[in-house]
Each structure stands twice: as structure tokens, then as C-alpha cells.
Amino acid sequence: MGVWLLVGLLVGIFVLDVMLPGVVLLPFMYVPVVAAATFAGSRITGLLAAMALALGLVSGEINGYVPSQDYWLRLAGLASRCTWLT
After folding, report:
1. DSSP letter string over 27-49?
2. Helix (H, G, I), strand (E, B), or coil: what is residue 24?
3. How confident is the model over 52-78, as pLDDT tens digits?
4. CA dist., res. 33 & res. 52, Å (int)
5. Are 86 and 49 in contact (CB under 8 A)?
């Protein structure tokens, strides 16, 4: 039950990020991964981390952030946080 809630939270952050193009929500995609690391195993945490990175890449493509250096730094920060947690 709790894992599906975290997946829903991650998808909700993604949808808000896509629907609000002026607001950058990519740094907040690590929150469900941190929550998963507190009570779920490393397999679930790794799965949520991979999902967060994939949604971050898709979000950047949809919002047109791919050419921006800020986007790649934020994505690298998300990847490092997710890697550290798993």
C-alpha cells in the first residue's frame, strides 16, 4: 500500500511539473525515493529511483529544458541523491 502511495506521489510531481512549465519541480522528485528508503527495501528504493530519473528525463524533454545546463545539473543532483539512497 505504501509503495503505491509513493509511486502516486512521484507521478503527481511529474504531472505538476509538466502542467506548470514555469515551475521547476525536478528537485522534488527525490522525496518519494527518500521516503521509500526509510521503510522499503533496496529493491523498491532502486525501482523508485530509476522511475524518478526516467520521469525527470521525460519532463525535461516535454518542458524543453534539455539544452539548459541547469537542467542537467538538477538531473545529476537527483541521480546522486538516488544513488546514495539505494
Report:
1. GGGGHHHHHHHHHS-HHHHHHHH
2. coil
3. 889 988 988 888 888 888 888 888 888
4. 8
5. yes
